[in-house]
Amino acid sequence: MSTLQQQFNNDGYVILRDFLDKDLINSIYTEARKIFAAQIKRVTGKSVDIDDKDAFENAMFEFFEKDFNAFVNTGKTVQHSFSLHRLGVDPQIERLLKQVGLENPIIGARPAMQFNSRFLSKDGSKHWKLDAHQDWRTGQGSLDSTVIWFPMVDAGADIGALQVIPGSHKTGLKESNTSGYQGGITAGINDNEFIQTEFKVGDILVFSAFLIHQSGNNITNNIRWSVQLRYNNLEEPTFIERGYPMAYIYAPEKELVTPNFPSVEQLQTVFS
Ligand SMILES: O=C(O)CCC(=O)C(=O)O
């Protein structure tokens, strides 16, 4: 067994320094900001320079305040970008998953991106950050289900990089509530057990879906942009036995999102 896999099995995670090409990360980050910029223009009337970090992120906050629904949908749209999906199936990622023990990896859920900032929360709610949780509860895939997490900006404690409890992946699936996106573990957790991780752009965290982790506290005025990639192992016996369960439900809206749209004229214009 490789040292990497030993460390992964033992701690439930590994951090690989300088693993991803910075240009590749930047292409994902740039595509995401361009998508947001288009809606920022529509909602606030401002053309923002995506490379002027503070101005751009202030415009993100204004967009969030002015049209929450569009902000949420734009947040989902960036998760559908070509650059992000290309990375999710990159041979470098596939090799890495095999190295930590997934003989035959398959995507567990579509790639996700998070924009963590207290200025992107409603009514002072804490939903901009995730409480202690295990991703397996929402994915319910193979027992060796694995997550890759990385920030697209340098991320230490101040900007709230992830906090993990080493070895917690072997302590079982914890009771949890359904608050927020991933829920929160309700059984007593000792806060002192969390380790604060730190990253430069290019570093990645690979962790077992059973590892207990939580968002750090972003006390800066900037957004902590990060990506999460989730995988299962098609060869894991209990995953096969349980009929390849798929707990992520993608369902279409039942009603038209934009009532009485489109008109015949609009369609004729598109196809003229
Ligand atoms: O990026 C974060 O703050 C939380 C991400 C996370 O815990 C997850 O996606 O499971």
UniProtKB/TrEMBL annotation:
Keywords: Dioxygenase, Oxidoreductase. GO terms for molecular function: 2-oxoglutarate-dependent dioxygenase activity; iron ion binding. InterPro entries: Phytyl_CoA_dOase-like. Pfam families: PhyH. Coiled coil: none annotated. Its cofactor is Fe(2+). It comes from the Bacteria. This is Phytanoyl-CoA dioxygenase (PhyH).
